[in-house]
Amino acid sequence: ILCLVSAAAALDFKYHHTEELEEYLRGVHAANPSLTHLYSIGRSVEGRDLWVLVLGRFPTHHKIGIPEFKYVANMHGDETVGREILLHLIDFLVTSYGRDPVITRLLNNTRIHIMPTMNPDGFEATKVPDCSYTQGRYNRNGQDLNRNFPDAFENNSASIQPETQAVMDWIKNETFVLSANLHGGALVASYTFDNGNPVTGSLKGYSKSPDDDVFIHLAKTYASNHASMYKGTRCDNREPFPGGITNGYSWYQLEGGMQDYNYVWGQCFEITLELSCCKYPPADQLEKFWRDNKVALIEYIKQVHLGVKGQVTDKNGNPIPNAIVEVQGRPHVCPYRTNEQGEYFLLLLPGTYVINATVPGFKSMLKTVEIPDNTGNFSALKQDFSFPEVSDKIRSRVASCPKTPLYQELTRASAAVKPTVHILVLMTIMLVIFK
């Protein structure tokens, strides 16, 4: 244990290969057993663990009212900066807890999951570091993990990889509210949707989600707190990214991306952070990358406390899982539902909203809420719903959104409505002429 503690205390600015990374994570956990929890969500094709270190006041389990946050890096094995700065983020959080009041409050009120590498095989396969593309981008089966998730717009024919399935199961088993995945090869914060169709405005070159305002805010939060991302300079000297952010589809269309999957099926807002023009830069640049991203990484985590949260309960105060809780005017194609504890979390910017809570088979309940900016207080606005006509013997049926291109269904529904609208307009005109 003393050796592990010693290893945790010495984190150099260098690249940490699999054994070193595991040793460091085990050392941090051994040195901070009440603040951290180390677990693997699965294994890569070659059998390497996909390690996650959790940090928080209640690291081993979900606590009602405390939102779940995650950072994932290195899903492209040759994009390495995120892998290393997440290790330094871990180091900063554990050494600041109890000393820095902001970090202490953040960890007391947030459960933070950090996965330094989603593609350890790809990282180990990158024998010659390069600033541009290498084969290490892919997993051991030659698959791009950021093209490997179910897609809400098209039938993704890619075979689901072990690393992808592990992340999908992870998302299903936790109540993640906010996330970011860390990449390299550009310097920009990109937000959903990565794919699109006419329903989401793709014909105009922008694929807009129902929570577009929140996503823009999240991307701006990271970019504006980064040392230079906010300047919007492109690595290839083409048109700049205004403010250092971009809608994913506006940049380039991507099928089977992880951030869209998180948002549609995981009820988790995720953005993609491109942190370096060079995918695999020399190790002597890592310290500067950490300094450039340090503030942004912390400020972004705070955004998990935006909006409103609460519980849906029956007449006896028992939680109701799978109740639908949405904001009027911004329904999700896969409705957002409460977890097993009857909890919901909705990320919203400050303003007035009507929250609609629905237990299938019963009358919906509407509540108007005025949402302040509570990120500085590390707690979203609390708004509970109690259904007095629901007993503890009645439960919503387990709801699962099908892994089909859900937005294709919307396109067909929209097309089917159009003739009806045209007929109604024609009938109205004929009625006016007749009168």
TrEMBL record:
Keywords: Carboxypeptidase, Glycoprotein, Hydrolase, Protease. It comes from the Eukaryota. PROSITE patterns: CARBOXYPEPT_ZN_1, PEPTIDASE_M14. CDD domains: M14_CPM (cd03866), Peptidase_M14NE-CP-C_like (cd11308). The keyword Lipid biosynthesis does not apply. One of its GO terms (biological process) is protein processing. The active site is at residue 274. Belongs to the peptidase M14 family. This is CBPM Carboxypeptidase. It comes from Aegithalos caudatus (Long-tailed tit).
